[in-house]
From TrEMBL:
Matching PROSITE patterns: FN3
Family annotation (CDD domains): AmyAc_bac_CMD_like_2 (cd11339), FN3 (cd00063)
Signal peptide: 1-21
Coiled-coil parts of chain: none
Keywords: Carbohydrate metabolism, Glycosidase, Hydrolase, Metal-binding, Polysaccharide degradation, Signal
Protein's recorded name: Carbohydrate binding domain-containing protein
Amino acid sequence: MRRTRTRLPGRLLATAVTVGAVLGLVSGPTPLPTASAATTDTTDPTATVFYYTKTKNWTRYNLHYAPDGGAWTPVPGVAMEAACTDWVKKTVSLGGATGLQATFNNGSGTWDNNSGRNYALGTGAITVKDGVIAHSDPCAGTEDPGSGDGNKATVYFSTRTLGWTTANLHYQPAGGAWTAVPGVGMRAACTGWWKKDVDLGTATSMKAAFNNGNGVWDNNKGADYTLPTGVTTVADNKVTANAADPCAEQTPDTQAPTAPTRVSTQADGVSVVLTWEPSTDDRGVTAYQVTRTGGTKGDTVTTVGSTVLSDAGLEERTTYTYTVRALDAAGNVSPASAAVQATTGTKPPTPTAGSPLGTDPRKDPIYFVLTARFNDGDTSNNRGGSQHVKSGNAANNDPMFRGDFKGLINKLDYIKGLGFSAVWVTPVVLNRSDYDYHGYHGYDFYQVDPRLESAGASYQDLINAAHAKGMKIYQDVVYNHSSRWGAKGLFTPTVYGVRDAQWSWYYDERQPGFEYDGLTVDPKSGKSYYNGDLWSTAEPSGNTCVNWGQPTGAKSPEGYTIYNCQWPSPTSGMFPKALYHHCWIGNWEGEDSRSCWLHEDLADFDTENAQVQNYLIGAYNKYIDMGVDGFRVDTAVHIPRTTWNRRFLPAIQERVAQQHGIEAARNFFVFGEVAAFVNDKWNRGSVNHSAQFYTWKERGEYSADDERAALEMYEYEQQQGTGNQPTSTNAFLEGNAYHTPDHSRFSGMNVIDMRMHMNFGDASNAFHNGRDSDDSHNDATYNVVYVDSHDYGPNKSGERYTGGTDAWAENMSLMWTFRGIPTLYYGSEIEFQKGAKIDCGPTCPLATTGRAYYGDHLAGEVRSSDFSEVDSATGTVATTLARPLAQHVQRLNQIRRAVPALQTGQYSTDGISGDMAFKRRYTNGSTDSFALVTVSGGATFTGVPNGTYRDAVTGDTRTVTDGRLTVAAPGKGNLRVYVLNGPGQIGTPGPYLK
């Protein structure tokens, strides 16, 4: 975002073919088969539920459950029995159900109910440990392996860099059969190590892979591990045979973490947000345990991995008391924090949380909106901010916060009528700066900005409304930075201020009990952009800003005295070094691009700090829980790949899988902005700053410390250079054949196709440059492709694309048929604001920029019962839908949706003459879709399968008997899509597709 100033699939059977893995951890695409467990019924499915006891230390444990679709057991449930050290278990029959809802309690009114959501469990052996669910038997292997006569193997597996809370060993003795997925549970041996003893029988070695019980695997880069008899360690893809016991020299961890401090609460309706300062521990804090007392439903104990807990669904007008304890990996528990209280208010009308649609994201063309500038559904939440007059917006009656979720909900049928099935919305979190309508100045990451919400049109309402229409919501998220005023709940700076004759106009009088939310107007100042909480004349406790409050000798433009520490900056010492970086970027392709501030409005997080990581993970878990379908990641290049691969991407996968299932996690679409504004395949030769680099897992072994690992990885990959980076054939056909892609080295992050974007001044350039880069992406069929955006036009232009309607049509025809996911910035369907400067901050009115208000073009009513199908439209919106590019994109979406090869197919240009010409194929089960495409110009296709081809644009039918098909040039912006055994013409001819 440009700113302006102010897998390894689950092994089905021993004989199943392993879909390769090349590096580390991938989510299996299929649900894990049931692990073996004790049963009470040979016909009905059962679940053996294991519950971790060490951190709770209750005297009794009860399982209160309901089979899916069935009734709950009477409170307190059924007693659990001792299983093995630190575990209790209970095996229950599920009747015809395939899972169960569960909570746990001590029989005396204290509950663990997964923060009010209950635990959703499956069948087989299931563990619940400190809030994390996994498929495993933690007591397996407790038997003495020496009791058999076979060869013995003792396997130690390290999870120190993985963050797993459970480990399973999935193995195959040489010449034998694989264990059932997910394998057998390993036991915690010492900090960071898991152990399993195996009787190999007559075999002298075994094949092995490891997983966390939730579909995340370490399978030795797809080759599996070969482990001999004796003691073997596996750490960071390295096997050491005849190894020493890695736990032998570790002294037992008996030291508990320190008690959490500065615990605070904030009540909002019937929800409470609890925050605290992190504890310290000699070997590291792994989680926090929050105990809540009060209300009529009993006490609860909730385990979280961050320093924030959002406690929802409480009783109205009730006082609750909270204490927090810290946990370490050995299960040591700190003393309780000081108790704090919070009193709830009344329950607001809240929509039910949704679930992501969970389908292949390549099927969904994306419509990108700046929410605050798209369509205004509620004028009461419009806000102009401190720059309303200066910017010229006031003169246009055009407040920066004008569009909202209600306006977007009201026009979802417009977007659906154009044929789009995914909507990318700008960041939704509460922002704080002088000009923050775009959403990239996050202040409270745990709160949706009230300037976007209305009664009956909350963010949850938008998600639910989109899903009801079969449309996805992709949320823009920021991990790299907060606003200049910090991040509420993590750190917010206090600046020096004095309400004297010079500055009283600027510093609002502090209002006890008044809290900034961007919407509510301070009754004394009359401002919604109240700043009374940001300044202090007295030096605050713990201040680290140098020369607090002393005159700098400089004057403001008005002639007012400027003081030290009067404004947040990275070099003043105002921000804690542990949480924020303290420098400005000097080299955008240098290492400092990840460790310095981009701009004064963007306080740069130290994302390698665990407290920062926990804060962000906890915040974005909230939106995952609400059911968003994916994240567009802002400024992804300014965070090291190691941090993405170790922390943020696995956390996203784990949360989606936990809340919505493994299939939803597999299709949760994460695409990063790795801004590389050059025409090179690799960004000025720097692999660390190139978009495709972020689609790959790590291939080196780095320090367990994230800060050191980031530097080690940066240096290692720079030395490897562009000529020694991994390559992939995932986007390419093999001849005319589709092949199963290998995503085992996939990081979990897809990217915006910056190279095509940079070259879209001419469609042919975009096509050839994109094709040239595709072998360096893990799978370019997932690339997000657009011409221009809220930041730049092609070739780093600061203006919205103005190449002409024919050129726009040609660009669209290419985007909708070539590999990748076509994406359109709002209004481009009518060449909205073409040639206008995209962004000039508050120095000019928004109405004159590429971020102008679009709602005037949407006035009236529109109804769409299906994608690309407008049932009715009245008023201005009918005129908008009749524009040539709107009709063009509408039909392109029809054609793309009807031809699977254009959505998920691989491609090739082999045997093809013609400029923008290619063949695509997708094969899966009974689906076999093969298409020959040419854009604007003619083409000859040779060596293609014989058969009957029908053009999706004209319906023209050709019979190929010699593997050759020649297509005449259809004209600029037009195209031909000859589909083998295809349906013929799709849609009706329009201004370009004819």
